[in-house]
Amino acid sequence: MKKLSGNTSGLKAGQIRRLENLYRRRTPPEYLITPEIARELCLISGEIRRQTGLLIDRQGRITCVIVGDNRRIVIPDLSEYRTAPGRLNGLRCIHTHLKNEPLSRDDLTDLALLKLDMMAAVTLTKDGEPHEIHIGHILPSPDKRDKCVNEIIFCRKNAKNNFQLTKSHDGSPYNIFPPVKPNLLDMGCIELIQAIEAELAQAKPAHKAGEAGERAILVSVSTDSKDNAADSMDELKELAISGGIEVLETVIQQRSRPDSRFLMGQGKLGELSLLALQKGASMLVFDQELNPSQIRSITDLTEIKVIDRTQLILDIFAQRARTREGKLQVELAQFKYLLPRLVTKNTAMSRLTGGIGGRGPGETKLELNRRLVRDRISRLEKAIEMVILQRRQQRAKRSKKSLPVISIIGYTNAGKSTLLNTLTKSNVLAEKRLFATLDPSSRRLKFPKEIEVIITDTVGFIKNIPKDLLVAFRATLEELKNADLLLHVIDIGNPRFEDQVESVERILSDLNLNKIPMLRIFNKQDLVKKETVENLCRLYDSIPISANNESTLAPLIKKMELSIESICIRHPET
Ligand SMILES: Nc1nc2c(ncn2[C@@H]2O[C@H](COP(=O)(O)OP(=O)(O)OP(=O)(O)O)[C@@H](O)[C@H]2O)c(=O)[nH]1
Ligand SMILES: [Mg+2]
User: Fold this and answer.
1) Helix, strand, coil proportions of the chain in percent (round to 5)?
2) Engineered SS bond to 276: which of 206, 253, 281, 422, CB 3.0-4.6 Å?
3) Ligand 1 close to Cβ of residue 550 (< 6 A)
4) What residues pack around ion ligand 2 (CB closer than 5 A)?
5) At 417, is the pLDDT very low, low, confident or very high (cuts 50, 70, 90)?
6) Which region among 190-204, 247-261, 400-414 has the lowest average model confidence (pLDDT)?
7) In testing the pocket of ligand 1, which one of 413, 434, 525, 552 has its CB within 8 Å of the most ligand atoms?
8) Is residue 286 within 8 Å of 253, Cβ to Cβ?
C-alpha cells in the first residue's frame, strides 16, 4: 500500500486505514472525481478536522493521498511527474476546504507552479457530506481568452448539466468555474485537460526563435519609481534584442522590498511561470542582479531557465568578441561570474579535499569543476597580463613617434564607431545594436592644419556595468589612460541620454580617467528639434553633430584641433 503524505500524527489506526484505502479507488476519465470518492474524502476530512487531498492522474488513478491541517495541504515533491516543457504535469488535485471557502491564493499558486491539470476544492455540509466543488484550471492563452477551446467544451457540458460559465475578465491567468454540485462531476474532465494542452502546444514556436534561439519574458522587480523601472526595462529589452533573443513580454513588479529568496512573492512567481507556459517562453531574464541562491530558487520553482542582466551582457560580449584579446577578457569575466554560482552541495565532504597535490577522497564533481574554473581564471589572468605588457611596449614605441591620441568614448549605441568612420573615412562595424564594438580600433586622422593624431574607438559603456566585466576589460580600458583627449559621444535622440551621460562620467571617474580633457558631443542631432539641440548644447557645453553626416562635423573638427594644439603646447613631449 502506498504511504500517506503530510501530517498524519495523532490519527487513529482506523482513520489511517480509511485514508489509505482511497488509493484503491479509481475515477473514470470523464469525471473530475466520482461522487463516491468525493463523499469518502469529505467524511474522513470532516472527522479528522484536517484538509485532505488527492492527486489523480489522467488514467483516473489516485497517485497520492495528502493530509494537511485545518487550513491547508502541502503537495509533496512532484519532480518524478515532471513532463516536457510547455506541458501540464498530468495530475489534478482535489482537496477539501473545511470552512466553506473557495479556491485560495495558495491553491492557485500551486496550480500554476506545479502545472497541475486542475485544482479543485470541495466544501463540506454540516454533516460532513460534499457541499460544493470549486474548480480552476490555467488558461492556455491569455490573449485569446474569449475563444478558449476549453471553454467551448465546458459550455457544451454546461448545457447538459445546466452549469453557468464565468470567464475571468480580471486579466487573471486562471479560469475558475462557479461552484459545482457534487452530482455534476461528470464534466468531460479529460477532454478539457487535453484541450488545454493542445492550446498550450500552439504557443510553442514552429520557427526557431531569435538568433540565439531563445524566447524570453523580461522581468523587473523594482523598488524604484515606475518611470525608472520602465526606462530600465526598455534598455533590458534592447539588450535582449541585441543578444538575439526574441522578447515575448515584459513584466514589471513594484515592491517596497525585494523578497530575499525569490525576489518577488511566490504567488506572483506562479503567475510568471504560467505566463511563460502560455507564451511558450524558454527563459526569464531579470533586470536585477540575482545572487546565486536566488537564481537556483527561482529556477527550481518555475522550472525554466533564469538569467539576469549581468549574464545577458556577458553573453552579448561573448557573441561579439572577435580578437584573441577580446575573447580572453570575455572568458575571464564569464568564469568569474560563474565561480560563485557553482555550489558544492556537500561541504562536509569537500573539506576532505586538499592534501598534497591530489584530489581528496570526497571530491564531488562540482568541486572538481570549481577547481577547473579557478585554474582557468588564473591562466586567463596571466594571459591578459601579457597582453597588457605588450600594449605598454607598443604604446611606448608610439609615443616616441609623438602622435597625440584622441579616444572616442560613450554609452553603447551612441554612434562612436560611426563618428570614427566618418572622420577617417574608414569602415569599422557600426550598427543599431548594443555593444556592436568590443575590440578597439585605431586610425590616423590629419587635421586641416596638418596636425596628425591617432583616433581610437572602443567598447561602449552601460549603466551598472558588471564589475567582473570592468575588471576583465582592464587591457582594453587601460588603453584609454593613454588618451590626450576624450570625445564623449552622447545620443541625444535617446530619451534616457541624461542618465547615460551620468553613467559614463561616473565610470570615467571610477577608472581614474576624469583628469583627461574631454569634449562632450551631442550626436544624432537630426533626431531632435533644432531649438532643443541648441538649448541642450548650451546647458551641457557640448557640440552638436550627426556622426553619419560629414557636413555637420566641421565645428567639432575645429574644436578638436584647438584642444590638441593647446595640449601639445602644454605637453610638448606628446
Ligand atoms: N539618426 C542617426 N543615427 C545615427 C547617427 N550616428 C549613428 N547613428 C546610428 O546609431 C547606431 C549605432 O551606431 P554605432 O556607431 O554602431 O554606435 P556605437 O557607439 O559604436 O555603439 P557600440 O559599439 O554598440 O557601443 C547605428 O545604427 C548608426 O547608424 C546620427 O547622427 N544620426
Ligand atoms: Mg561601436
Assistant:
1) 45, 20, 35
2) 281
3) no
4) 416-417, 436-437
5) very high
6) 190-204
7) 413
8) no
